[in-house]
Specification:
The complex is a heterodimer of chains A (207) and B (230).
Chain A: H1 8-23, H2 26-38, H3 66-69, H4 72-89, H5 96-113, H6 122-132, H7 139-148, H8 153-159, H9 163-166, H10 169-182, H11 197-203
Chain B: E1 12-13, E2 17-18, E3 28-39, H1 48-60, E4 64-65, E5 69-85, E6 92-103, E7 110-119, E8 122-126, E9 133-135, E10 144-147, E11 152-159, E12 162-167, E13 173-183, E14 210-215, E15 222-223, H2 224-227
Parallel strand pairs in B: 1-4, 9-14
Antiparallel strand pairs in B: 2-3, 3-6, 4-5, 5-6, 7-8, 7-13, 8-9, 10-11, 11-12, 13-14, 13-15
The chains are: A mainly alpha (207), B mainly beta (230).
Chain lengths: 207, 230
């Protein structure tokens, strides 16, 4: 502050100096209004539609569509790729922040590897969906068939709503045949190769 | 059991925004989210995408987001906005639009899990990565009774020969239908008034932020061993 300036000339010089000083700060001052936006946590971001998709290097995956993620197979792929990548990078695997990711990745991989989905590939999924077109099932039903690979009529009845009205016995058999022939068997299904759908139906008590 | 490696209980996370309600399409759904990620200066040499992916996973993996589900891992980054540096903080702040894989089964979905244990409240089921699933007594195959001695639920299955007792033992695989879900906001509340809580009650009841209610009262549901050829 120039309370006492000896002459006016230095005053001008100081103002000029201040001018150049403030020129060094444009990034920060421009950022200040943005900070109020960024720190407004809890407000819904009404930004425009996403521009070019920046694919993160973490998952090496199929086309990203909402329904595809519902399939355990693609999640299995994602998590396996993630695990591979993290093994290579190595260093900060055990830092406390990464522990959560390690835990959830390990557990989810363990869960999915016990289901029939682990051997699925995008081609198998596409083939399955094409074969399913004639049966007129909803997306949720097709997804469940894909994830669980039912082998008995009882399981089909669980996953398909109103199956007694929508599907005749032959259609159910055809559906079972399509499912078991296109989708690869899971690790447990190989033990139960001799499951007879008739025996399962005898045990049912129609409620 | 590897519960030692897992931090318990999971906390709910507050995010900047969840852009759209996730479509109900299966056990795992993709949720679009927006958040601002802070990258400290000592990580500037790394590629921005890698740092952001790591920060997002650190923040969200294995955590429950209120009314969304259990976050598993990052799917992809859809948009990166400009990064800003704020006065007084050397770190860069980037607004990121991304998609996250979230565990959120839809209503009536069939799932297969393992029995964790039984209690008078019902049968507790676990999926390994998600534990808080309960099948209440009224949703078991009827008639069912609770065996106090062995602490296990039993399905008294009637045939012409007589009643078979089918035990729901721990560790058995069980197929169930999701009939309900509930989210509880477990974020810390402010200090309560002095007269409400006594000093002896220091630990409030630990509630799970996300619980599922299942049912096995249909043919085909219940222990997998019940429905395979005997």
């Amino acid at each position: 502050m120039q309370e006492h300036s000896p002459t006016r000339a230095p005053e001008k010089g100081e103002r000029a100096a201040r001018g150049s000083g403030s020129a060094k700060l444009p990034a920060c001052s421009a950022a200040i209004p943005a900070s109020t936006l960024a720190r407004g946590a809890g407000t819904l971001a009404r930004s425009a539609a996403a521009g070019t998709a920046v694919k993160c290097e973490v998952p090496g995956l199929l086309a990203a569509r909402g329904d595809e993620a519902g399939r355990h197979g693609s999640v299995f792929q994602l998590l396996t790729d993630l695990k591979e990548q993290r093994k290579e990078s190595g260093k900060n695997k055990h830092s406390s922040g990464q522990q959560n990711l390690n835990t959830i990745t390990y557990e989810t991989l363990k869960y999915i590897s016990k289901t029939p989905c682990r051997h699925q590939s995008p081609e198998i999924v596409r083939e399955f969906l094409t074969a399913m077109k004639s049966h007129k099932l909803t997306k949720a039903e097709k997804l469940q068939l894909l994830n669980h690979r039912p082998v008995t009529a009882v399981e089909i009845q669980l996953m398909v709503e109103e199956s007694e009205e929508r599907l005749t016995e032959e259609q159910i058999e055809a559906l079972l045949h399509t499912v078991t022939s296109i989708l690869p068997a899971g690790p447990e299904a190989e033990q139960k190769k001799n499951t007879n759908s008739d025996v399962a139906m005898d045990e049912e008590d129609p409620a | 059991m590897d519960s030692e490696s897992r931090p318990q209980p999971r906390k709910t996370e507050r995010l900047c925004a969840v852009r759209e309600p996730p479509a109900q399409t299966g056990m795992f759904v993709l949720v679009e989210m927006v958040d601002t990620v802070r990258i400290p200066p000592w990580q500037f040499e790394r590629k921005l995408n890698d740092s952001i992916a790591e920060e997002l996973n650190k923040k969200l993996a294995n955590k429950v987001v209120y009314n969304v589900g259990l976050c598993i891992c990052l799917f992809d980054i859809t948009k990166l906005e400009d990064a800003y540096v704020f006065p007084g903080d050397g770190a860069s702040h980037t607004k990121v639009h991304f998609r996250y894989v979230v565990f959120h089964p839809f209503l009536d979905e069939i799932l297969i899990g393992k029995i964790k244990g039984c209690s008078p409240e019902g049968v507790h089921v676990s999926l390994g990565f998600f534990d808080d699933i309960l099948i209440p007594p009224e949703s078991l195959q009827q008639p069912a009774k609770f065996d106090e001695a062995e602490q296990v639920w039993v399905w008294e299955y009637e045939t012409e020969e007589g009643a078979h007792d089918l035990y729901m033992d721990t560790g058995e695989e069980i197929r169930f239908r999701v009939v309900d879900e509930s989210f509880v906001d477990t974020s810390p509340t402010g200090p309560s008034s002095a007269d409400a809580t006594t000093s002896s009650e220091e630990l409030p009841k630990k509630e799970a932020p996300y619980t599922l209610v299942g049912s096995i009262s249909e043919p085909g549901l219940g222990l997998l061993s019940w429905w395979t050829s005997n």
